[in-house]
Amino acid sequence: MPGLVERLRGIVGGGACLARPEELLVYECDGLTLHRAQPTAVVLPRTRDEVCRIVRACREFGVPFVPRGAGTGLSGGAVAQRGGVVIECSRMDRIIEVQPIDRYAVVEPGVVNADLSKAVAPHGLFYAPDPSSQLVCTIGGNVAENSGGPHTLKYGTTTNHVLALELVLPDGEVVELGSRSGFANGYDLVGAVVGSEGTLGIVTQVTVRLTPLPERVETLLAIFPDVVSACRAVGGVIESGMVPAALEIIDQRTIAAVEASVYAAGLPLDAGAVLLVELDGPACALPAQVLRIREIAAASGASRIELARDASERQRFWRARKGAFGAMGRLAPDLYVHDAVVPRARLPEVLAQICAIGDRHGLRLSNVFHAGDGNLHPNISFDRRDPGELARVLAAGVEILEACVAAGGVITGEHGIGSEKRDFMGLVFADADLDAMKRLRAGFDPDGVCNPEKIFPSTRFCAESNPKARGYERVPFGS
Amino acid sequence: MIPAPALRALRDALGAECVREDERVLVDGEPLAPTLLPADAEALAAALAALTQLSLPCVIRGGGSRLELGNPPRGAAVLLSTASLAGVDVFDASEGVCHARAGTPLAEIEACVAPAGWQLPLDPPGPASTLGGALAAAALGPRAQGFGRPRDCVLGLEVALANGTRTRCGGRVVKNVTGYDLNKLYTGSLGTLGVIEGAWLRLRPRPARVELLEAASLEPSTACARAFAASRRSATRVALVHAARGGAGERRLRVVVELAGDEASVAQDAAWCACELGAKLAPASVLENLRELQGATPDGRGLRFRIAVLPSRCEAALSRLWQAGADVLGHPGLGLVYASFALPDGEDSAALAAAFLGVEDAVSAGAGAVVLEAAPAWAKRGRDVFGDLAGALPLVRRLKRLFDPAGLLNPGRYAGHL
Description:
The structure holds two protein chains of two kinds. By secondary structure, chain A is α+β, with helices and mostly antiparallel strands. Chain A has helices at residues 4-12, 21-24, 48-61, 113-120, 139-145, 152-155, 189-193, 227-240, 252-259, 286-299, 311-322, 324-328, 347-360, 387-406, 431-444; strands at residues 17-18, 41-43, 65-68, 85-88, 95-99, 104-107, 125-126, 162-168, 174-178, 202-209, 211-212, 216-224, 246-251, 273-281, 304-307, 334-337, 340-341, 364-370, 375-376, 378-382. Chain A has a seven-stranded antiparallel beta sheet with strand order 15-12-14-13-18-20-16, sandwiched between helices. In chain B, helix 1 (4-14) runs antiparallel to helix 2 (41-54), helix 8 runs antiparallel to helix 11 (314-323) and helix 11 packs antiparallel against helix 12. In chain B, 60% of the residues are buried. In chain B, the strands form five sheets. Chain B has an eight-stranded antiparallel beta sheet with strand order 17-14-16-15-19-20-18-21, with helices on both faces. A five-stranded antiparallel beta sheet of chain B has the order 7-8-12-10-11. A four-stranded mixed beta sheet of chain B has the order 1-4-6-5. At the A-B interface, strand 9, helix 7, helix 8 and helix 15 of A face strand 7, strand 10, strand 11, helix 7 and helix 9 of B.
């Protein structure tokens, strides 16, 4: 694109504009390595005004643009599918204001999730959403994806923690949405922008809610003979009225992978499943809850229940959970991390179906998931250089999504639709539903220049070609 | 009254029994008739399609608890009621979710889920409040501090658009990023983008123990500081300060705290409240009365404002409103202050101006968004009850045009007189 790169260099300076093929290589994909496309250029602005000027330049040259945080997304959301300019916000990384009394912070989008919690910890506060990538992922990316994490069961996802946004619209205008108090008049546009996967504009400032650090944390690890009994324990906990901070299940195949890796946490190799329970709150409340969790786990068939005695033991328990993805790296060169949600009571049967799907396709499939939310993460280890195996991975992925939707679930709980699942939106939504979403899109980005080719099905998948879209003969849906 | 051919067309679309000509409802002094009472979601969609065909704008009504909220309707003749779309369709006690139709009274949902140990933590004022109305108005009550706001309860919605197209968003699961989060857009949109037919709701476990405590007659600054401190206790679900005018302008406030949770936390925080606030056990009616006060206007014809404040500025805002002659109810933990002003008989513009001056004073003391929640029709003239949306207004306008191009849903009522 003659002239565009020079214009962008004029805005951000030569060092903050990448356009040589070898520089662009890393921006070809995000955490989902299967979807690749090379952008025309990548810019790394430092200020809102630079973002506005970049957006206007893109408009002038008629090229689309794609916002990008740390690129840890798992649905291809930060990939320039149609070429164009990737606007990476990682250099806008200032924590502008922290108000411990009113419990909010104003940050730029490039602030790393865990850094924010670290910065506010001296005030006895933290930023609650904690996606697995929290050591590198940015708040801006979290806003785009409405990121969750293991602790969303109690604390909610990003949308529950964003009070206000400054947004550069696709026409280069700046708009402030929401308010520090959390109450703004007019439509809840903050709620609409959070989770919009960078398709409604570029967030240049975020006001987030801060949460008091719990007085005490207790972590339990329960060993079960099979995943069904672990799921039964999860159901028992939910029905008991307790709201643990986290309820995570690791299945037998994952345990084997973890124990053979550097993340080994001393889990018994003959365990069918492991349930990790984290409780937090006032110190006086936890002993009774720990006792109750022990009872429920035992009644559900747990063969062993351990309570972390100190921080290092807690870390060991979590290492098994958080190291799961890393451990998979030993099994095969590539890992496909799926993401879908089902009603919690349907977990055992859907898990059985998912394992059967993997077996039928001859794949190495394992499960580690946010059981308390019903949020499944089937992981498939594979080698994408083997075209036969890749085809089977993709086919199994579709079957997994179909099984989850059939159980009353949805096709993503925290990774987003991006380019990965756009053609499966029809499994969940009818054309009329998607049309309503397109109206929202048109209100912000009438010309479709902001992160195009995401969320909405590509033309070849549109309309009638989706007979599986569940219509109104099944109102209320999912029941 | 609408022309006879239009009336016939509506009767044909809905059935004569669902078109009530004899019911005339006044909204901001404007008489609306007939009332359309579609029997189910399909009939609601048919009613909207017919109204689109006839170019007839309508005002939408749930339980009627908040019909006073909004700017005066512009050119609406018909009232569209969701009252007949009632009932809890699905209640999954193992999951803690339920699906209810828009016209279901909140009390009915609560009665359905409570025996299984769940609650729907929506407690806006108005005993007749329906689910659809409460969501459309994003109406909240004192427990919003502890359990979240309407936006936090909604997992999925079915919405009929202005032209009668039926749509869905979200789902029934508790975690979901499949597509845009239109739940947020519709919740609080006052029915101006579409009419809610039904909703999937996230329920919360009923607490093992609940205690209501009250400390009466504290100096305003002490009361605010203590209510604020109470709002930060782990078991606190409600922390209110309240002051009613009376008794020779004596400036005393009371603090009401509801604790809810496990036995140990509630006991610990109750001991704290007794020690720090001098609070004593209070009957449940104390909270119920305050909830209703939050939704009431003096003599039924005064002004009531809702003012969002940062918790640290709550006391400043409260004191200024009090000085301006308002009854005040504040939630320091939630960051909301409700102020109501009595108005004399007749159109007294001086009294109106004085009230607005007091509110502006409070806003300058650090408050944020203001909504004039209730006022006589004359007092709404020439102003926007939602205040100035500033930079967000063009976006709000564009969205309204995209969802309701003919401007048939609650015309004129929303922010920006949309």
